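Lab notes, practical 5.
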Amino acid sequence: MTAQAISERSPARSIQLTQVTEWEDGRLRPFDDALAAEEPLEIRVGDTPLTVTMRTPGNDEELAAGFLLTEGIVDSPEQIASLSPFANNAAGKGNGMRAALRECAFDPADLRRNFFAASSCGICGKASIEAIRLRGLRAPNPEFTFDPEMLCALPAKLRAAQTVFSRTGGLHAAALFDRSGELIVLREDIGRHNAVDKVVGWAMLERRLPLSENILLVSGRGGFEIVQKALAAGLPVLASVSAPSSLAVQLARELGLTLVGFLRGRRFVLYSGAQRCAEAGRTG
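Output from the prediction step:
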C-alpha cells in the first residue's frame, strides 16, 4: 500500500497544456507549457453547501474527507457514511463532493460562517485560538522523537516525489513520513491547505488516524490553518521549508505540537516542541 501511494501517477485533469511564447537571449519561440490545473470544488453535506475551494483536480474524496475532519465537522471516519461526486456546472465536470454523515451532531443552522477557501491564502474565518480550544483538540504524542539528520533529508524526498510540480512548477505539496524518514504518501495541490487535507483524508479513509507516529512536511509556510489541521490529525511534528506565522507558533506552543520552520540543507528552526528533537539536550 505504501509503495502504491508513493508511486501514483498524476491524477487526471491535474495538468493542463497551453501555448506560450518564450523570450530568451534576444529570440522568441513558441512552445506548449504545462500548467497546474485549478478548478473549484464544492463540498456538501447532504444537500447543504458547506464550502467551495479552489483546488487542483484529483484525490477529491480525500480532500473532502480531510476537510470534514480538520474543520471539526466529524471526529472519525465512521461518521462519514459515504462520499460521492456530483457535477455542479454546465460542463458536467465532477466538481462537487457530497458527504452523507451518520451519528454526527452537524446542524446547518449552527454554522456561524460560510467556508470559502482560496488557493492563495487558505481557509479563512477562524480568527482566534479560542475557536480551536472549543473543539477540544488534544496534545499530540509526547513520546515521539525524531533524528535531526533524518529530518534534514526530507525536503529532497518531497521534491523528488512531486510529479506534477516537476512538470508545472506551480504546486504546493504535503508529505507524510514515518519515524525513520520513509515517505508514506504525498499529495500536491495549488493550495497548501488542500494538499494537507488530501493527506489527512487519505489517512482517514485508510483508518490510520491518529497520525501519532508521523511527521508532516509542507512546502511553503506553516500557517495557522496548517497547524490546526496537523493537530486535528494527531501529528506530533509539522515541518515546513519556510517560516510559520506568529499565530501558528502560538497555537503550536499551546497544544504541544513540534513546529519546524526553514528546513533547508542542514539547518532548521524549532519554534515549539524542541524536546522532540533527539539532540535537544545538546544545545550549545
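Observations recorded by the TA: The longest strand covers residues 15-24. The longest helix spans residues 192-205.
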